[in-house]
# Entry
Amino acid sequence: MNVYLDNNATTLVDPHVFAAMEPYFVQKYGNPNSLHHFASETHPGIKQSMQKIYAGIHAKDEDSVIVTSCATESNNWVLKSIYFQYILTGEKNHIIISEVEHPSVISTAKWIESMGCKVTYLPINHEGLIEAHSVRDAITDKTALVSVMWANNETGAIFPVEEIGAICKEHNVLFHTDAVQAIGKTPVDVQAFNVDYLTFSAHKFHGPKGVGALYIKKGKELIPLLHGGAQMAGYRSGTLNVPGIVGMGTAMEQAIDSLEFEMSKVREMRDAFEDELLKIPDTFVVTPREKRTPNTILISFRGIEGESMLWDLNREGIGASTGSACASEDLEANSVMEAIGAAEDLAHTAIRFSLSRYTTQEELNHTLAVVKRAVARLREISSSFAYAPDGHVCGLSEAH
# Structure
């Protein structure tokens, strides 16, 4: 049996999404900026899809939603534009991010830091969560931007973006949130949460790869990313990815329609699966489940290298991960495990299971059986498990 439990890395394209996209490859293929009827045939699909995207995140008509290639592009754009607009000019000299942001934010922040900007990396607590007061404590009169993700890609931890947004508004500081892991898993409302910039990728919620978006609140304009033909209100010139836009709009609509199912049925399946995993001795889960997205488990099996567990799972047709797909070639300790202060013998043991609305109970039953066999086999040959200390482990909780 093939079982895909790596939905925080990417998702299958919803059949409705694929069906909506298909005509724009072979039938309605005109360049939207041309003047003939081949071009005009694409306009209704683009307009309707953008309306769905606006509605999905509660953007206002006067706000801008710019289609990009992915959230990595969008995240880079926000941070680098802030650098050129506020840091390079000398108006500000400081930004704030969390220490567990996606690599596209952390790497960009480090580049900005190398150019002379001060960067504060907010720590997470023992539950893998940012505490909103740490943002308030870090803000100065020279802070240009706070960038904190909505939900963590590895643990599923939902950060207090509403409180952070309110703090930023109070201090007149711009607020950006990477919402890649939030769309379709928890309600996202840019108005209620005082968000100035929000980024996401369609392939994280059953849309196509290679298309994402950047929300820009009215009055919080950024420097254009690409100059040229004035597409996307002049922010990002270039011929529009019409199939991608249509796919992303349909995926957004499907994600919002499926949100209740995700927050109830998927959560129920996740919790039951997690309960069974935690019956395995010396097994620990990061972040209390009520503070996580409903589909995600980051779990550690003491004495077992994460890569070794993945090998056993993959041989049985099961796809999971040791954390962020963007860092999958890096075999260093899991960054979240290190950030919460996990002991050295646990920092390399994290496995992430991430479900979707297409995950079945049969698939989870199969996975559980494989995991149990793999744990028994790998602990049998482990050089560290027999000597692992008993009792509490720093930063991890055995509680459900």
